[in-house]
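fold description:
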Amino acid sequence: MNETMEQAQVGSASDASTLTVEVQNVTRTRSVHATFQRELRADAAAAALASKLALPANVPYSLRSNKSAGYLDESKSIGSQVTPGERLTLTPRSHLGGGIGY
């Protein structure tokens, strides 16, 4: 696997108000260790990570916890949903089907 590891800092230096996690893109070809303010909303964290990983800006992204296999609630803080060191996957949000009658 051709994986690229990078460091990203979103917020201030590590302390009780920050959280560091490992995030990979959905194809697992890029990975980054990112430090966030615990109060940052999950949707804002996903957008920042998409930019850091040079992913298309016109696509909405979500974060999925590899620990629970569930998606983070975008309206809640990242610190209330994950633990330090947890691995997350950044995935594009897509809606399949619906709206088109055949």
Q: What stands out?
A: The longest strand covers residues 18-25. The first helix runs from residue 42 to 52.
